[in-house]
Design brief:
By secondary structure, the protein is α+β, with helices and mostly antiparallel strands. The protein has helices at 67-71, 89-102, 110-128, 164-170, 201-212, 255-266, 278-283, 313-322; strands at residues 10-16, 19-24, 35-36, 41-45, 52-55, 74-82, 85-86, 135-142, 152-159, 172-178, 217-222, 225-229, 233-238, 241-244, 270-273, 286-291, 295-302, 305-306. 40% of the residues are buried. The structure holds pyridoxal-5'-phosphate.
Amino acid sequence: IRDRVRGCRLGAVGIHEGRNVWRHDNHRSGGIIGGMGHAPVIVVVEPFGGSSRRQNPQLPHIFWDDLGLTRADGIFESLLVHEGRACNVERHVERFLAGAKKLDLPELGRDAVLKATGEAVAGWVDECGDELVDGKLVWTFTRGRASTGIPSVWMTVTDVPAGNAKLREKGVKVKLCEKGITLHPEKAPWIASGAKSLGYSATMAALRAAKAEGMDDVIWVDGDRVLEGATSTVISIKGKKVRTPPSGTDVLAGTTQQAVFETLTAAGYACKEKELSVDKLKEADGVWLVSSVRGAVPVRSLDGEKLNRNTPDDVARLLAEAMFS
Ligand code: PLP
């Protein structure tokens, strides 16, 4: 039993399917209010000075009037923690700080973000004890309390979702979903395209619709134009050509895709941002969904139609390794 969080009697109470069950002894639920796996690590960051502190995960730290909660007004980043470090961290910092600027949130500064990240990762390593366990690190930055105008910034590290490794191995059945809207940032600069906004309710609804039809994931399309995965970037491989839809208004610039392109370019593949049609995906040797925490996942089918799975082994290996950049 570990007791890592100051002021909180938090500990593993048993093992369920190979994972710890953690609890808080003093809670009126009788103890078990946490969940399975390791206890979350939370670091709260002061948005104007950048100082940070560890937060007890059994105590609330967001107020009822936080605009991140009531208006989804804010941004986030999800990163993989692997072998005791945050992967691809420079690309995430860049997108996070650029997103904050687009939303007129205060300038946190790269050093403050990296310092708090270091504390969160060190806390996770400490929480996991002797073994180095992968974690999901999330940075959240909201407009904060309506009553005070002070933004909220915090970081969490939790266990990675248990099913991720299986999805990487087995691949996903994908539903093609229309966004239903075409954005025009030149007419509406307040859209802040490129920021990784907290507003994912339409995404979650599309994923529920896909799952209700026996599929695992979603690729957004605009007519015949392929955009991106629900929470990932689309990459197609054909011969030596590697393609991804251009990032911009309706496609988030993916940090994993950038790492993949860097690696595959060095290995002699021709990597390009280029418009992709649904038919092009159907003609490809392999179609992949890449993202920071889940990694590279092969697409098995689109709306029930089977896709090729002929990605060469060396490319599949390089794709898999890019998540650890
Ligand atoms: N596109 C969307 C809409 C996403 O939500 C994500 C990740 O969450 C991605 C792409 C992939 O981004 P990254 O590779 O930086 O994790």
